[in-house]
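## retry 2 of 3
previous attempt timed out at serialization; input unchanged, resubmitting
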Amino acid sequence: MENFTFHSPTKIIFGKNTEQQVGNETKRHATKVLLHYGGGSIKKSGLYERVIQSLQSAGVDFVELGGVQPNPRLSLVQQGIQQCRDEGVDFILAVGGGSVIDSSKAIALGVPYKGDVWDFFAGKAQPETSLPVGVILTIPAAGSEASDSCVITNEDGWLKRGYSSQENRPVFAIMNPELTFTLPPYQTACGAADIMAHVMERYFTNTPYVDYTDRLCEATLKTIIKHVPLVLLKSDNYDARAEIMWASTLAHNDLLSTGRTGDWACHQIEHELSGIYDVPHGAGLAVVFPAWMKYVYHHDLQRFTQFAVRVWNVEQDFFDQEKTALEGIRRMEAFFQSIGLPIRLEELGIPDDRLEEMARKCRKGADGTVGNFVKLTTEDVLSILKLAK
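## retry succeeded, writing output
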Protein backbone atom coordinates (compact mmCIF):
# COMPACT_ATOMS: atom_id res chain seq x y z
CA MET A 1 0.00 0.00 0.00
CA GLU A 2 1.22 3.48 -0.90
CA ASN A 3 1.23 6.57 1.31
CA PHE A 4 -1.87 8.70 0.83
CA THR A 5 -3.78 11.77 1.97
CA PHE A 6 -7.55 11.41 1.78
CA HIS A 7 -9.56 14.65 1.74
CA SER A 8 -13.25 14.57 0.88
CA PRO A 9 -14.84 17.75 2.26
CA THR A 10 -18.18 17.60 0.43
CA LYS A 11 -21.14 17.61 2.82
CA ILE A 12 -23.58 14.88 1.76
CA ILE A 13 -27.29 15.49 2.43
CA PHE A 14 -28.98 12.22 1.48
CA GLY A 15 -32.57 11.06 1.40
CA LYS A 16 -36.18 11.84 0.61
CA ASN A 17 -37.20 15.47 0.06
CA THR A 18 -33.70 16.73 0.84
CA GLU A 19 -33.81 19.16 -2.11
CA GLN A 20 -36.04 21.31 0.09
CA GLN A 21 -32.96 22.15 2.16
CA VAL A 22 -31.12 23.77 -0.74
CA GLY A 23 -32.05 27.36 0.12
CA ASN A 24 -30.78 27.28 3.69
CA GLU A 25 -27.71 25.25 2.71
CA THR A 26 -26.80 27.64 -0.12
CA LYS A 27 -27.32 30.69 2.08
CA ARG A 28 -24.37 29.56 4.23
CA HIS A 29 -22.00 30.11 1.31
CA ALA A 30 -23.47 32.70 -1.05
CA THR A 31 -24.82 36.19 -1.53
CA LYS A 32 -25.74 35.66 -5.18
CA VAL A 33 -26.04 32.35 -7.02
CA LEU A 34 -25.85 31.08 -10.59
CA LEU A 35 -28.48 28.34 -10.92
CA HIS A 36 -27.06 26.05 -13.59
CA TYR A 37 -28.98 23.19 -15.22
CA GLY A 38 -29.52 21.29 -18.45
CA GLY A 39 -32.66 20.96 -20.52
CA GLY A 40 -36.30 20.79 -19.55
CA SER A 41 -36.32 17.67 -17.35
CA ILE A 42 -36.02 19.50 -14.03
CA LYS A 43 -38.94 21.74 -15.05
CA LYS A 44 -41.12 18.85 -16.20
CA SER A 45 -40.49 16.96 -12.95
CA GLY A 46 -41.29 19.96 -10.75
CA LEU A 47 -37.78 20.00 -9.25
CA TYR A 48 -37.07 23.44 -10.72
CA GLU A 49 -40.04 24.99 -8.92
CA ARG A 50 -39.08 23.38 -5.62
CA VAL A 51 -35.52 24.68 -5.92
CA ILE A 52 -36.69 28.20 -6.80
CA GLN A 53 -39.12 28.21 -3.88
CA SER A 54 -36.44 27.04 -1.45
CA LEU A 55 -33.95 29.68 -2.62
CA GLN A 56 -36.54 32.44 -2.43
CA SER A 57 -37.74 31.35 1.01
CA ALA A 58 -34.16 31.51 2.27
CA GLY A 59 -33.68 34.97 0.72
CA VAL A 60 -31.03 33.80 -1.75
CA ASP A 61 -30.60 36.03 -4.81
CA PHE A 62 -29.95 34.10 -8.02
CA VAL A 63 -29.64 34.21 -11.79
CA GLU A 64 -30.02 31.27 -14.17
CA LEU A 65 -28.15 29.55 -16.98
CA GLY A 66 -29.64 26.43 -18.57
CA GLY A 67 -28.76 24.54 -21.71
CA VAL A 68 -26.02 22.17 -20.52
CA GLN A 69 -25.62 19.29 -22.98
CA PRO A 70 -24.20 15.82 -22.38
CA ASN A 71 -20.42 16.08 -22.81
CA PRO A 72 -20.66 19.74 -21.64
CA ARG A 73 -19.35 22.40 -23.98
CA LEU A 74 -16.64 24.98 -23.40
CA SER A 75 -18.70 27.68 -25.11
CA LEU A 76 -21.45 27.49 -22.47
CA VAL A 77 -18.83 27.48 -19.73
CA GLN A 78 -17.39 30.69 -21.15
CA GLN A 79 -20.88 32.19 -21.30
CA GLY A 80 -21.43 31.27 -17.66
CA ILE A 81 -18.13 32.80 -16.61
CA GLN A 82 -19.04 36.11 -18.21
CA GLN A 83 -22.54 36.03 -16.73
CA CYS A 84 -21.15 35.44 -13.23
CA ARG A 85 -18.75 38.35 -13.59
CA ASP A 86 -21.43 40.67 -14.92
CA GLU A 87 -23.94 39.70 -12.21
CA GLY A 88 -21.57 39.55 -9.25
CA VAL A 89 -22.21 35.85 -8.65
CA ASP A 90 -20.19 34.20 -5.88
CA PHE A 91 -21.65 30.67 -5.85
CA ILE A 92 -22.67 28.08 -8.46
CA LEU A 93 -25.61 25.75 -7.82
CA ALA A 94 -25.67 22.75 -10.15
CA VAL A 95 -29.00 20.97 -10.52
CA GLY A 96 -28.55 17.91 -12.68
CA GLY A 97 -26.14 15.10 -13.44
CA GLY A 98 -22.44 14.94 -14.16
CA SER A 99 -22.52 17.21 -17.21
CA VAL A 100 -24.22 20.02 -15.29
CA ILE A 101 -21.90 19.58 -12.32
CA ASP A 102 -18.77 19.54 -14.51
CA SER A 103 -19.92 22.63 -16.37
CA SER A 104 -20.53 24.34 -13.01
CA LYS A 105 -17.08 23.40 -11.76
CA ALA A 106 -15.47 24.80 -14.90
CA ILE A 107 -17.39 28.06 -14.55
CA ALA A 108 -16.33 28.23 -10.90
CA LEU A 109 -12.68 27.82 -11.92
CA GLY A 110 -12.93 30.41 -14.67
CA VAL A 111 -14.62 33.32 -12.87
CA PRO A 112 -11.62 34.41 -10.75
CA TYR A 113 -9.04 33.42 -13.41
CA LYS A 114 -7.71 36.15 -15.68
CA GLY A 115 -6.86 33.84 -18.57
CA ASP A 116 -8.80 31.33 -20.68
CA VAL A 117 -10.45 28.64 -18.53
CA TRP A 118 -9.34 26.05 -21.11
CA ASP A 119 -5.80 26.61 -19.80
CA PHE A 120 -6.63 24.32 -16.88
CA PHE A 121 -7.80 21.51 -19.15
CA ALA A 122 -4.84 21.97 -21.51
CA GLY A 123 -2.37 21.65 -18.62
CA LYS A 124 -1.19 25.26 -18.88
CA ALA A 125 -2.38 26.59 -15.51
CA GLN A 126 -3.33 25.68 -11.94
CA PRO A 127 -6.09 27.53 -10.06
CA GLU A 128 -5.32 29.70 -7.07
CA THR A 129 -8.99 29.78 -6.11
CA SER A 130 -12.47 29.13 -7.46
CA LEU A 131 -16.08 29.88 -6.59
CA PRO A 132 -17.79 27.34 -4.33
CA VAL A 133 -20.16 24.86 -5.97
CA GLY A 134 -23.23 23.14 -4.53
CA VAL A 135 -25.10 20.24 -6.13
CA ILE A 136 -28.56 18.75 -6.35
CA LEU A 137 -27.89 15.40 -8.02
CA THR A 138 -30.42 13.96 -10.49
CA ILE A 139 -28.35 11.29 -12.27
CA PRO A 140 -26.05 8.86 -10.40
CA ALA A 141 -23.22 8.15 -12.83
CA ALA A 142 -20.29 10.56 -13.01
CA GLY A 143 -19.68 10.86 -9.28
CA SER A 144 -18.88 14.52 -9.86
CA GLU A 145 -20.97 15.51 -6.85
CA ALA A 146 -18.04 14.73 -4.54
CA SER A 147 -15.05 14.30 -6.86
CA ASP A 148 -12.09 16.55 -7.57
CA SER A 149 -12.50 16.23 -11.34
CA CYS A 150 -14.46 17.76 -14.18
CA VAL A 151 -14.52 17.11 -17.92
CA ILE A 152 -15.29 19.64 -20.66
CA THR A 153 -15.50 19.37 -24.47
CA ASN A 154 -13.86 22.08 -26.57
CA GLU A 155 -15.75 22.46 -29.84
CA ASP A 156 -12.54 23.68 -31.49
CA GLY A 157 -11.13 20.28 -32.47
CA TRP A 158 -13.75 18.40 -30.40
CA LEU A 159 -11.28 17.75 -27.63
CA LYS A 160 -12.76 16.25 -24.47
CA ARG A 161 -10.42 16.86 -21.56
CA GLY A 162 -10.54 16.48 -17.81
CA TYR A 163 -9.02 18.52 -15.02
CA SER A 164 -8.57 17.46 -11.40
CA SER A 165 -8.00 19.76 -8.45
CA GLN A 166 -9.17 19.94 -4.84
CA GLU A 167 -10.74 23.26 -5.87
CA ASN A 168 -13.28 21.19 -7.82
CA ARG A 169 -14.86 19.46 -4.83
CA PRO A 170 -18.40 20.76 -4.18
CA VAL A 171 -19.10 22.15 -0.73
CA PHE A 172 -22.35 20.18 -0.51
CA ALA A 173 -24.28 17.59 -2.48
CA ILE A 174 -28.01 17.04 -2.00
CA MET A 175 -28.90 13.50 -3.04
CA ASN A 176 -32.52 12.35 -3.13
CA PRO A 177 -32.91 8.96 -4.87
CA GLU A 178 -36.54 9.87 -5.67
CA LEU A 179 -35.22 12.37 -8.22
CA THR A 180 -33.92 9.43 -10.29
CA PHE A 181 -37.25 7.59 -10.60
CA THR A 182 -37.99 9.12 -14.02
CA LEU A 183 -34.61 8.39 -15.61
CA PRO A 184 -34.99 6.52 -18.91
CA PRO A 185 -33.70 2.92 -18.76
CA TYR A 186 -30.85 3.62 -21.17
CA GLN A 187 -29.66 6.58 -19.12
CA THR A 188 -29.80 4.44 -15.98
CA ALA A 189 -27.74 1.75 -17.72
CA CYS A 190 -25.17 4.24 -19.00
CA GLY A 191 -24.84 5.57 -15.48
CA ALA A 192 -24.21 2.06 -14.20
CA ALA A 193 -21.36 1.55 -16.69
CA ASP A 194 -19.85 4.90 -15.69
CA ILE A 195 -19.95 3.97 -12.00
CA MET A 196 -18.41 0.56 -12.67
CA ALA A 197 -15.70 2.13 -14.83
CA HIS A 198 -14.71 4.51 -12.02
CA VAL A 199 -14.25 1.52 -9.77
CA MET A 200 -12.38 -0.59 -12.31
CA GLU A 201 -9.99 2.23 -13.18
CA ARG A 202 -8.89 2.04 -9.56
CA TYR A 203 -9.14 -1.73 -9.16
CA PHE A 204 -6.65 -2.58 -11.90
CA THR A 205 -3.47 -1.42 -10.24
CA ASN A 206 0.15 -2.46 -9.97
CA THR A 207 0.27 -1.50 -6.29
CA PRO A 208 0.74 -4.62 -4.14
CA TYR A 209 -1.10 -5.46 -0.94
CA VAL A 210 -4.23 -3.37 -1.26
CA ASP A 211 -6.67 -6.05 -0.13
CA TYR A 212 -8.93 -3.72 1.86
CA THR A 213 -9.59 -1.34 -1.01
CA ASP A 214 -9.83 -4.33 -3.37
CA ARG A 215 -12.72 -5.52 -1.21
CA LEU A 216 -14.33 -2.07 -1.21
CA CYS A 217 -14.07 -1.94 -5.00
CA GLU A 218 -15.54 -5.42 -5.36
CA ALA A 219 -18.43 -4.59 -3.01
CA THR A 220 -19.23 -1.44 -4.98
CA LEU A 221 -19.24 -3.33 -8.28
CA LYS A 222 -21.46 -6.09 -6.88
CA THR A 223 -23.86 -3.46 -5.53
CA ILE A 224 -24.32 -2.03 -9.02
CA ILE A 225 -24.59 -5.47 -10.62
CA LYS A 226 -27.33 -6.44 -8.15
CA HIS A 227 -29.42 -3.27 -8.07
CA VAL A 228 -29.40 -1.88 -11.62
CA PRO A 229 -31.54 -4.76 -12.99
CA LEU A 230 -33.98 -4.13 -10.12
CA VAL A 231 -34.56 -0.49 -11.06
CA LEU A 232 -34.85 -1.40 -14.73
CA LEU A 233 -37.73 -3.69 -13.71
CA LYS A 234 -39.30 -1.14 -11.32
CA SER A 235 -38.09 2.41 -11.82
CA ASP A 236 -39.44 3.73 -8.50
CA ASN A 237 -37.67 1.14 -6.33
CA TYR A 238 -36.38 3.62 -3.76
CA ASP A 239 -34.11 1.23 -1.89
CA ALA A 240 -32.34 0.05 -5.05
CA ARG A 241 -32.06 3.63 -6.36
CA ALA A 242 -30.54 4.68 -3.03
CA GLU A 243 -27.92 1.92 -3.20
CA ILE A 244 -26.94 2.97 -6.73
CA MET A 245 -26.79 6.67 -5.87
CA TRP A 246 -24.55 6.20 -2.84
CA ALA A 247 -22.34 3.70 -4.69
CA SER A 248 -21.90 6.26 -7.46
CA THR A 249 -20.55 8.84 -5.02
CA LEU A 250 -18.17 6.47 -3.26
CA ALA A 251 -16.94 5.13 -6.60
CA HIS A 252 -15.43 8.52 -7.44
CA ASN A 253 -14.77 10.52 -4.27
CA ASP A 254 -11.32 8.86 -4.07
CA LEU A 255 -11.99 6.62 -1.07
CA LEU A 256 -11.37 3.64 -3.35
CA SER A 257 -8.14 5.24 -4.57
CA THR A 258 -6.48 5.30 -1.16
CA GLY A 259 -3.11 3.58 -1.06
CA ARG A 260 -3.11 2.60 -4.73
CA THR A 261 -2.40 4.01 -8.20
CA GLY A 262 -5.26 3.65 -10.68
CA ASP A 263 -5.07 3.24 -14.43
CA TRP A 264 -7.48 5.65 -16.26
CA ALA A 265 -6.54 4.58 -19.79
CA CYS A 266 -10.12 3.57 -20.66
CA HIS A 267 -11.45 6.99 -19.67
CA GLN A 268 -8.90 8.74 -21.85
CA ILE A 269 -9.69 6.46 -24.80
CA GLU A 270 -13.44 6.89 -24.34
CA HIS A 271 -13.12 10.68 -24.21
CA GLU A 272 -12.17 10.54 -27.88
CA LEU A 273 -15.33 8.56 -28.72
CA SER A 274 -17.69 10.93 -26.93
CA GLY A 275 -15.69 14.02 -27.86
CA ILE A 276 -15.98 13.33 -31.59
CA TYR A 277 -19.22 11.34 -31.83
CA ASP A 278 -21.06 12.71 -28.77
CA VAL A 279 -21.99 9.23 -27.55
CA PRO A 280 -23.04 8.80 -23.90
CA HIS A 281 -19.92 8.44 -21.78
CA GLY A 282 -21.15 5.30 -20.03
CA ALA A 283 -22.03 3.61 -23.32
CA GLY A 284 -18.57 4.36 -24.65
CA LEU A 285 -16.99 2.91 -21.52
CA ALA A 286 -19.06 -0.27 -21.90
CA VAL A 287 -17.40 -0.69 -25.29
CA VAL A 288 -13.85 0.32 -24.39
CA PHE A 289 -13.38 -1.50 -21.09
CA PRO A 290 -13.86 -5.10 -22.33
CA ALA A 291 -11.54 -4.43 -25.27
CA TRP A 292 -8.89 -2.98 -22.94
CA MET A 293 -9.21 -6.00 -20.66
CA LYS A 294 -8.72 -8.43 -23.53
CA TYR A 295 -5.60 -6.51 -24.55
CA VAL A 296 -3.91 -6.26 -21.13
CA TYR A 297 -5.09 -9.19 -18.99
CA HIS A 298 -1.81 -11.11 -19.39
CA HIS A 299 -0.04 -8.25 -17.56
CA ASP A 300 -1.51 -9.49 -14.24
CA LEU A 301 -3.45 -12.69 -14.76
CA GLN A 302 -3.89 -13.15 -11.03
CA ARG A 303 -5.73 -9.83 -10.64
CA PHE A 304 -8.04 -10.59 -13.56
CA THR A 305 -8.72 -14.02 -12.07
CA GLN A 306 -9.55 -12.38 -8.73
CA PHE A 307 -11.89 -9.98 -10.55
CA ALA A 308 -13.65 -12.90 -12.24
CA VAL A 309 -14.07 -14.94 -9.07
CA ARG A 310 -14.94 -12.22 -6.56
CA VAL A 311 -17.01 -9.90 -8.74
CA TRP A 312 -18.60 -12.21 -11.32
CA ASN A 313 -18.78 -15.41 -9.25
CA VAL A 314 -16.79 -17.43 -11.79
CA GLU A 315 -15.75 -20.82 -10.44
CA GLN A 316 -11.97 -20.77 -10.42
CA ASP A 317 -10.27 -23.27 -12.70
CA PHE A 318 -7.09 -24.03 -10.76
CA PHE A 319 -5.53 -25.64 -13.82
CA ASP A 320 -6.38 -22.84 -16.27
CA GLN A 321 -6.19 -19.37 -14.75
CA GLU A 322 -6.55 -17.73 -18.16
CA LYS A 323 -9.87 -19.48 -18.75
CA THR A 324 -11.17 -18.07 -15.45
CA ALA A 325 -10.02 -14.54 -16.28
CA LEU A 326 -11.58 -14.58 -19.75
CA GLU A 327 -14.87 -15.88 -18.36
CA GLY A 328 -14.96 -12.85 -16.03
CA ILE A 329 -14.59 -10.50 -19.01
CA ARG A 330 -17.27 -12.43 -20.89
CA ARG A 331 -19.69 -12.13 -17.97
CA MET A 332 -19.06 -8.40 -17.74
CA GLU A 333 -19.91 -8.03 -21.45
CA ALA A 334 -23.03 -10.14 -20.92
CA PHE A 335 -24.09 -7.92 -18.02
CA PHE A 336 -23.71 -4.77 -20.11
CA GLN A 337 -25.78 -6.36 -22.87
CA SER A 338 -28.44 -7.50 -20.39
CA ILE A 339 -29.06 -3.92 -19.26
CA GLY A 340 -29.24 -2.64 -22.83
CA LEU A 341 -25.74 -1.32 -23.42
CA PRO A 342 -23.51 -1.74 -26.48
CA ILE A 343 -20.23 -3.62 -26.30
CA ARG A 344 -18.95 -2.86 -29.82
CA LEU A 345 -18.15 0.35 -31.67
CA GLU A 346 -20.48 -0.60 -34.51
CA GLU A 347 -23.38 -0.68 -32.05
CA LEU A 348 -22.60 2.96 -31.25
CA GLY A 349 -22.59 3.80 -34.96
CA ILE A 350 -18.87 4.63 -34.90
CA PRO A 351 -17.15 3.84 -38.22
CA ASP A 352 -13.60 2.64 -38.71
CA ASP A 353 -12.32 5.69 -40.57
CA ARG A 354 -11.27 7.75 -37.52
CA LEU A 355 -9.76 5.11 -35.26
CA GLU A 356 -6.22 6.24 -36.00
CA GLU A 357 -7.16 9.85 -35.33
CA MET A 358 -8.69 8.92 -31.97
CA ALA A 359 -5.64 6.86 -31.01
CA ARG A 360 -3.37 9.75 -31.93
CA LYS A 361 -5.42 12.39 -30.11
CA CYS A 362 -5.91 10.33 -26.96
CA ARG A 363 -4.45 12.35 -24.10
CA LYS A 364 -1.11 10.95 -23.02
CA GLY A 365 1.42 11.67 -20.30
CA ALA A 366 4.87 13.20 -20.58
CA ASP A 367 6.30 9.84 -21.66
CA GLY A 368 3.88 9.61 -24.58
CA THR A 369 1.77 6.83 -23.08
CA VAL A 370 -1.67 6.56 -21.52
CA GLY A 371 -2.58 4.55 -18.43
CA ASN A 372 -0.63 3.18 -15.48
CA PHE A 373 -1.56 -0.50 -15.20
CA VAL A 374 -0.05 -0.99 -18.65
CA LYS A 375 1.61 1.97 -20.37
CA LEU A 376 -0.14 2.20 -23.73
CA THR A 377 1.37 3.76 -26.83
CA THR A 378 -0.62 5.21 -29.72
CA GLU A 379 -0.29 1.84 -31.45
CA ASP A 380 -1.63 0.06 -28.39
CA VAL A 381 -4.64 2.38 -28.22
CA LEU A 382 -5.34 1.73 -31.89
CA SER A 383 -5.19 -2.01 -31.28
CA ILE A 384 -7.70 -1.68 -28.44
CA LEU A 385 -10.05 0.34 -30.62
CA LYS A 386 -9.81 -2.33 -33.31
CA LEU A 387 -10.61 -5.00 -30.70
CA ALA A 388 -13.70 -2.97 -29.81
CA LYS A 389 -15.04 -3.00 -33.41
